[in-house]
Amino acid sequence: MNFKSDNTAGAAPEVLAALARVNDGVEASYGDDAVTRRLGEKFSALFEKDVAVFPVATGTAANSLAIATLTPHYGAVFCHEGAHIHVDECGAPEFYSQGAKLVPLKGPQGKLTPGAIKAALGHFQRGFVHHPQPATISITQATELGTTYTPAEVEALSRFARAERLSLHMDGARFANALAHLKCRPADITWKAGVDVMSFGVTKNGALAAEAVVFFDPLRAADIAYRRKRAGHLFSKMRFLSVQIEAMLDNGLWLKLAGHANAMATRLREGLKAIPGFAVEQPVEANEVFARLPSLPAMKALEDAGAHFYEWEPPTNGRPLIRLVCSWATRETEVTEFLEAARKSV
């Protein structure tokens, strides 16, 4: 019953098989291999336009290099107060951008709104030498609270960004989970909705360690190759990163795995809603469930039963809030066992 994170799951068999295949023989290094060249074509087909793709090993690197490419070192990046780039990346976006300032903002269900950014812009006057200069908006899809931006919501942020001369970045660590829920085309929720650059995540969804920075306007990718090299993410054996992403894209594996994780989270949600004293606090639109428990003893009973999860915030009126994350490898029996333990805890 491990619902601590989707990072706790191993790699999908298809990914491991692809790694074994690419390990046979020799290939050119530093991204000049056939797999990495093929990856650009596959991403362009996936997004229905020519894109520039840069594989890296971690989501932190993908986010930080993307933001650094969009943002001058004196710039300001507007993000949600719960955003991974703000809370969980140890200042990496600021480090790789050489000083850009992250501006965390409140927003319902883990989402940014044009109104919140507009209010914040009042504190960052353009052309005023004492203020960081507004440069970038960063959103997370799916959000850190397991919700998703609709195409219309992304378009609204994009229109606002264009009017204010801001770039739009998408942290897509759980992009597959969002897409599996929204059931739209990848283009509809990215460049067609106005996203400039995205971090395309596959590690949480079944890869071993691989992400990609995707530029929807290749002309904006002029210097990321140098940034990636300086950051230590230009792998000499790049094919081992690229083939993981390729294996996920082949035959729609990435959406199949994400769909399973989402389905397990939905089962958790429905089961918890039926247990007295339990409440689900956020819409479940991806693979995360945020559950308010009836008491601290109930949480301890779940832990004693062998359940693993993350306590999201301090208890309110003695009632803890926990996060449950399902993965591509979550079994239905784990969900059933957890729900049975939850029923026994009250």
Structure description:
This protein has 346 residues and is of the alpha/beta class. The protein has 2 domains: 14-251, 3-Layer(aba) Sandwich (Aspartate Aminotransferase, domain 2); 254-344, Aspartate Aminotransferase, domain 1, CATH 3.90.1150. It has 13 helices and 11 strands. The protein has helices at residues 13-22, 34-47, 59-70, 84-87, 92-96, 114-121, 151-163, 175-182, 224-230, 239-249, 253-273, 296-304, 332-344; strands at residues 52-56, 75-80, 101-105, 133-140, 167-172, 197-201, 211-215, 279-280, 288-292, 310-316, 319-325. The strands form 2 sheets. Strands 1-7-6-5-4-2-3 form a 7-stranded mixed beta sheet, with helices on both faces. The protein has a 4-stranded antiparallel beta sheet with strand order 8-9-11-10. Strand 8 (279-280) and strand 9 form a beta hairpin. Helix 8 crosses helix 11. It is globular and about 60 Å long. The mean pLDDT is 97.
Chain-wise SSE layout:
Layout: H1 13-22, H2 34-47, E1 52-56, H3 59-70, E2 75-80, H4 84-87, H5 92-96, E3 101-105, H6 114-121, E4 133-140, H7 151-163, E5 167-172, H8 175-182, E6 197-201, E7 211-215, H9 224-230, H10 239-249, H11 253-273, E8 279-280, E9 288-292, H12 296-304, E10 310-316, E11 319-325, H13 332-344
Parallel strand pairs: 2-3, 2-4, 4-5, 5-6
Antiparallel strand pairs: 1-7, 6-7, 8-9, 9-11, 10-11
